[in-house]
Amino acid sequence: MVAGKNDKIMESNHKLIRIVQTALIATMIFFSSCEKDVFNPEKVKATYQDRFPVKDIDPDMDWKMTSKINVNVSVYEDAGVDYTIRIYNGNPIEDNTSAQLLTEGTASDKVSFTSTIDSPKALTDLYVCRIDPQNRSIVKLVSINNNTLTATFGVPPQSRSARNSASTRSGNVSIQTPDRSEADSKILAQTAATLQSSTTLFSGDVYKIPAGTAYTGNITTWGISGTVGTVIIEGTWAPSNPAAIQTGIDLIVMGTGKIVLPANSTLSLVGTTRFITYTGASISGKNATITITNYSGGKTNFNAGELSIKELQINGAGVIYNSSPSCDINYLNITNVGGKLINMGHATIGSSYVNSKIENGCYLEVTGTLNGDLTMGDNCTANIANYGSSGNSGRSIIMGNNSLLYIQNEASFSYGTSFTGPTNGNSLVKINKLTSLNGFQYKGGNIYYEVKQVQINNSWEKDTFLKYLKNSDGVLAQWGESPITIPAGDCTGSGNTPNNSGGGSTTNPIPYTYVFEDNFPLVGDYDFNDIVLDVTTDYIRDKKTNAIQDIVLNVTLTAAGATKTLGAGLRIVGISKSAIKSITPGGDAAQFETTLTSPRTNRPKFFNYNTSSHMEDGDNNIIIPLFNNAHQVFGVADGTLTNTLSNQANSVNNQKTYTYQLKFKLTDQTKTDPVFSKDNLDFFICYSYKSMAKRMEVHLYEFWPYGATAAGTVQQENLDLAGNNTWAVCVPNFRYPKEFINISVSSNPSVGAYPLFLNWAKNRNVNQDWYLYPNADKVCR
Hints:
With 781 residues, this protein is mainly beta. The chain contains seven helices and 49 strands.
């Protein structure tokens, strides 16, 4: 930028020097058309090598920044439904998205969307969005492999299980029944000895607390060795003090029975001792704790009654199975990895320790923070206030078919939390606020994720959630828009019903910016803004077959950083005129076509424009004149530097831009691959030099082999000397350099517009995204 008066004077002097140098070179080169002995190839070649920003260009550099990608997107969701498929360069459903559309089509269970697209080479992954008829969106992040992009939504028929998704809950969680039935316990109770404070229990014996009675003493096990004893509670056991039952007791609470623990007390079940409660029974105690030490002899603690305690502590590999509709544990404290709570009823947990493992096959509610492992069965729900905390390392979440995990406040998937989904069905994870992804892993299976907001401050960690789901069956949906319907029920709570309508996804197409230096065959200043064209492409397809009927090019004249009169045209190479049935102009067509039919007085007329065909007469190729004078299109005086953020007297900034829309109706309307794409679009600029009969043309390097159009020249001898230098380049969504700012400067990258441009020019396989990292004060827009 020009900082002051002295800088402006210096800049003007530099420009004058460049003009003088250019004039001298012009004289030298163009005299060659009259006197060949004046044309000195070695001097011209040396000039090119000296003045181009890069001195050691990659010998294989072709300056192409896009590749042709084959896409194949299949949808196996509702039969007979047509889904819109859109492919983007970014996440189209995140807040304030900058994603841009690459292509659009239709897919159903009968027809996949197959086509070819142009994609920036810097992109190794693309975002595939599926929109249903209600405008609800889901997205996958998919890698490009061997120039191919393949994505699937839903479960293919061959991968589905014959098992009905609404069958009895099991899946990842085993349904269990007590190994001692209530009927057997009733029979044993008939002959059992009544438990008294003086009773010493012996192996294999059965004792009881009769119905209608209360026992306040301890349960002693001094006489037990080997075979366990049994205590059947038909009445109430209300120990007056904290109690510990040493190894060897099956504590069975009948439907009429109760265990009432003293406030703030602990009941310890040691060794092989465990409990079984049947329907109607209860275990409770204000702020009371039950501790299961060791692993209950490898047998399961079973609860079918009401359990209401402050803390359940499992110090070994013990297991508690809940089938009750009322299990309330304020703190689940499983200290060893082998312990777990299996819930096949309604369980309410306040919070859990990091080693805790819960297998949920029905309805689970966590009112605080869930730490540890969670396994979900089929057709079940877990509503959790918060998930994860520090130290929650290496935890796993496994989802069952038609299961719902709803994290209502914050989720922290730090320290290596992994997710696994079902392979023959779908599951849903809803996250209100995501605060950490450090170490998050996705291990496959079909999971729909809905993330309402992401609040991650760590710049290293912060990234799109979809990055962690890349190339998996994990799908991100707009909030409330995932297609999985979970009916409300006893084990699913309120279930899940998708919103009636969705917000859709952006349809802003990716623009490709064509930037030109106008001095060819002379050396320019390489600010690449003499002409700036932004081009987007729309493919109008048959909604059922994806066959392309029309191709619409939107060509926007964005800037003119040249003082000379410049025209521009489009040559479509590689196809015949017969492939185009008709061309229909639109947009600001009049602004462009006026320059072709009524150019300004004393200005050259570059094109032999046919107002009916909108092509140029006299050429066997498809040549479409765009404009005869860029300044005339802008409606500014000739010689005006336009929209290049120049502070020169002959400049205008923030000038309105104009778009020439060209709608090509194709002769063959059966193809799903475009008849032409970026590889065919040879945009060029042109100008006249002195009395030359033909227009001087500047083409992109990749189109040099096609030579000039019939009415133009490219000074072939100069192209041969230029090597693989270039005077034009096409860049995705380019923030082009300001006036007088070189695109890159070898001696001092910080003064150029794009420091990484040099690295890419020297090695075309590195820094392919150089255009994303400008010196922001040296570029436009």
